[in-house]
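Give me structure tokens for this 103-residue protein.
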Amino acid sequence: MDLRGLSTEIESISSQYAERLGIERDDTWFLLKLQEELGELTQAFLMRTGRARTKGRTAEELETDFRAELADVLCHVLLMAHHHGVDLEEEVERKWLAWKTEK
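Here you go.
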């Protein structure tokens, strides 16, 4: 999966969703939505690891919820990067992959 292509697809979906609901996606919205999704991931993690009420959810449902929230966080990171014109592939290469050692 290539991040640039995925980012473009996610942006299109988010833009359509916001337009349909009359949401203004400004700098603040992108940050707050990411924070909201991180909170939902935290809750799913706590429930999955027995540190919060499971609300009657099965272990399988808790695992599915955790995975879905991870995807939401990733998508909102991509949306925020797209909004600010940040090429995440380039930044990951610069920041992380620069430390990669040849074997």
